[in-house]
Task: structure prediction
Amino acid sequence: MKVSARSQVPPFAVMEILAAANARRAAGESVLNLCAGEPSTGASAAVRDRAARLLATGDLGYTEPMGVPALRAEIAAHYGRWYGVDVDPARVAVTTGSSGGFLLAFLAAFDVGDRVALARPGYPAYANILTALGCEVVELPCGPETRYQPTVAQLEALDVPVDGLVVASPANPTGTMIEPQALADLAGWCAGHGVRLVSDEIYHGITYGRSGASRATGGVGVDGPAGAATAAEFLAGGAVVVSSFSKYWAMTGWRLGWLVLPEDLVDPVGALAGNVALCPPALAQHAAVAAFTPEGYAAAEADVARYTTSRALLLDRLTDLGWSRVAPADGAFYLYADISASGLDSTTWCARLLAEAGVALTPGSDFDPVTGRDWVRLSFAAAPEVVREAVDRIVAWQRTL
Result:
């Protein structure tokens, strides 16, 4: 029988590495996992307690396709608290993770054959979902000269126009951010050229000392993430925001994300949502309302403090690691480093590191098919003591190469 051409996309390598690491751990080996972008703490007590009460007494039937009104209202209010942006809850669509959000946004915004630009290196699922939907992916090579982020100049230099642009700030795998003015410039260019801007903001809240608003401190009336601008300011220009409860709120397995939509995509996304997923997970939706309480914010900020400690530890050990070229780790919890001095390609380097030192990292080829063979991504979402031991193991192992 036929297998569709659209399904022939590469697997997400980090999940294969995670499976290999888990297999070694199950066999009794000591394995330190720094390959997955997954907070090690899990959901806050506020969210878990609310979920427990709902399991005992709540109605967990189908919800509205766009999400329960209470959660949509809390998400909209969050934009007022963090960014000073007035968002109508009717523009919020709760989704099955940000992954479900990207699928709905891409289906609503693009047709087969549309050209969509995105940065390289970048999160591979953007390109893979777009390819499966019949879109043409246009890679914008982004290096240190652009701080690994796309620019208006790159868009202007394209020989053939594009229909869409996907940006991420903070980005995966680099952790770099788009300055507020640069985001405004990209949004303005897209609006002026009829290009749909899709902004991945799932790592908002996890930033380190950038200029801009003060760090959140756990209260409901707090300012937003330092230096992070949201494309929700540009909804009138057609921008789409994608976000998630997975990273800042550490709710990965709850599979809950959201979209903030321009007016012209609200009805199309609503219709698609009802057909594609019927509704997001009901328990996760009702429990996630507690993420926006003072206790929910405070727990997330405690996680950010741990990432900050791990990040400082890594940056202090760069000389020991011998990694002279790394992307600026503005936000998220990743360090993207050039390991070409080892003489190994990143896939071999990661495989040997896991087998010989018991540390799991992700090869850069997962994020950049052109130059990624020289790079690896280290996730410091684990506890600081785990990151510290992993660095010690990497340093010792590299001396044997």
In short: Residues 92 and 260 are 5 Å apart (CA to CA). The mean pLDDT is 93.
